[in-house]
């Protein structure tokens, strides 16, 4: 079957089990580690609480926190174009890493919409047009200020981090 890695279960989704297997499900396994780090630092939650989202809640399929997570995780993985989300739309690791749904829900097909139903459950990563609209919303003056504050908040947290009871001598900001 494969060797199970017992180094820890991701806090953001305890149903995920990491195993070494000969077949590849994804080439972007690092997305799970990045999502875990983002969850531990609280940056995704902080951004979700502070960024403005003026969309009609009844029309939303991809929540803003999932759009932000998609964009940041893809950039961190080396996928530079928003259009890369289309190529990775069905990648199971990326879907798990950006979703706030627990269990295997992010991997399941979205239920069909009833006639006239608005909004819905994401069926894969957001498309290029959806990400483009998110970037347009993030470029508002208010959201740019939130982004600047977020960088300062996260940097301050890192600078105050303690290891072994003493402050860090060196801090890298990438």
Molecular structure report:
The structure is a single chain. With 174 residues, the protein is mainly alpha-helical. A two-stranded antiparallel ribbon has the order 1-2. It has a two-stranded antiparallel ribbon with strand order 3-4. It is globular, with a radius of gyration of 18 Å.
Provide a quick synopsis of the model.
By secondary structure, the protein is mainly α.
Observed structural traits:
single chain, 174 residues, mainly alpha, two-stranded antiparallel sheet, 7 helices, 4 strands, globular, disordered N terminus
Low-pLDDT residue spans: 1-6
β-sheet strand percentage: under 5%
**The biggest beta sheet, please?**
2 strands, antiparallel
Average pLDDT over all residues: 77
Overall outline: globular
Proportion of helical residues: 40-55%
Rg computed from alpha carbons, rounded to a whole number of angstroms: 18 Å
Number of helices: 7
What's the helix and strand layout?
Blueprint: E1 3-4, E2 19-20, H1 30-41, H2 43-50, H3 64-76, H4 84-87, H5 92-98, H6 128-138, H7 141-159, E3 162-163, E4 166-167
Helix pairs in contact: 1-5, 2-3, 2-7
């Amino acid at each position: 079957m494969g060797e199970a890695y017992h180094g820890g279960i991701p806090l953001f989704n305890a149903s995920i089990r990491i195993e070494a297997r000969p077949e590849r499900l994804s080439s972007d396994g690092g997305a799970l580690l990045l999502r875990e780090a983002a969850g531990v630092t609280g940056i995704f939650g902080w951004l979700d609480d502070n960024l403005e989202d003026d969309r009609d809640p009844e029309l939303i399929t991809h929540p803003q926190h999932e759009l932000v997570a998609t964009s940041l995780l893809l950039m961190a993985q080396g996928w530079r174009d928003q259009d890369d989300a289309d190529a990775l739309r069905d990648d199971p690791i990326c879907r798990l890493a950006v979703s706030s749904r627990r269990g295997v829900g992010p991997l399941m097909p979205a239920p069909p919409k009833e006639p006239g139903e608005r909004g819905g459950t994401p069926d894969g990563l957001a498309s290029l047009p959806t990400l483009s609209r998110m970037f347009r919303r993030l470029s508002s003056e208010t959201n740019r200020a939130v982004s600047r504050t977020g960088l300062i908040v996260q940097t301050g947290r890192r600078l105050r981090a303690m290891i072994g009871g003493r402050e860090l001598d060196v801090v890298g900001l990438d």
